[in-house]
Amino acid sequence: MNKKEIIIILIFIGFCFVFAGPVFAKEKVKVNVSIDDHPLNNKGFIVIKLVDSRGKDIESNGTIHYKITDEFGNYKWAYKSYDGEIRLKYTAGIYKVDVKFDGDFHYNSDIKNKSVIVKTEKFNPYTYYDNHNWGLNQEIDDYIEYNYWDEDIYDDPTNYDGEGP
């Protein structure tokens, strides 16, 4: 091989690195940990989500590991394939959430450690429908139907939906 052939080969390899680099580059991902209230049974949700660098939810089959420790040191540790979001129901309290996403062929790995306070509000079935919440949560609708069907909750003409006694 002469110098000219070696230079051409090196230029070709350089072009391959430049043009193939973006194909093999992994996108940065961020683990988000938040809480959602659940009005029944003094419980709330700890929500684990993965978002891309633009803040949009991602779809990934990568493995996610999480450990949730309560204020007394009791913990739950698990891992599973990520498929949208992870919603875990917990009683009111303070929790330390440790999450590790292993990444996949498209996304880098990430780690998040966060303390969250799960708090719930006292559920008031008499104002639930006044706030136009009918049909938003089947569990709550069923709870009201089974426990408050014959009470004043349906007597208010502004929220009466045609059902009831």
Name some characteristics of this structure.
165 residues; Immunoglobulin-like; 7 strands; four-stranded antiparallel sheet
Summarize the helices and strands and which ones pair or pack.
Elements: H1 3-24, E1 29-38, E2 43-52, E3 63-70, E4 75-81, E5 85-91, E6 93-101, E7 110-118, H2 125-128, H3 138-148
Antiparallel strand pairs: 1-2, 2-5, 3-4, 3-6, 6-7
Task: Give a nutshell description of this structure.
This protein has 165 residues and is α+β, with helices and mostly antiparallel strands. 22% of the residues lie in helices and 36% in strands. It has a domain at 30-118: Immunoglobulins (Immunoglobulin-like, Sandwich).
What does this molecule look like?
This protein has 165 residues and is α+β, with helices and mostly antiparallel strands. The protein has a domain of 89 residues: Immunoglobulins (Immunoglobulin-like, Sandwich). Helices cover 22% and strands 36% of the residues. It contains 3 helices and 7 strands, in the order αβββββββαα. Strands 4-3-6-7 form a 4-stranded antiparallel beta sheet, with no helix packed on it. It has a 3-stranded antiparallel beta sheet with strand order 1-2-5, with no helix packed on it. A hairpin with a 4-residue loop joins strand 3 and strand 4. It is elongated, with a radius of gyration of 26 Å. The N and C termini lie far apart (96 Å). The model has no long low-confidence stretch (mean pLDDT 78).
Low confidence ranges:
none
Biggest sheet details: 4 strands, antiparallel
State the strand order across the main sheet: 4-3-6-7
CATH superfamily of the domain at 30-118: Immunoglobulins
CATH fold name of the domain at 30-118? Immunoglobulin-like
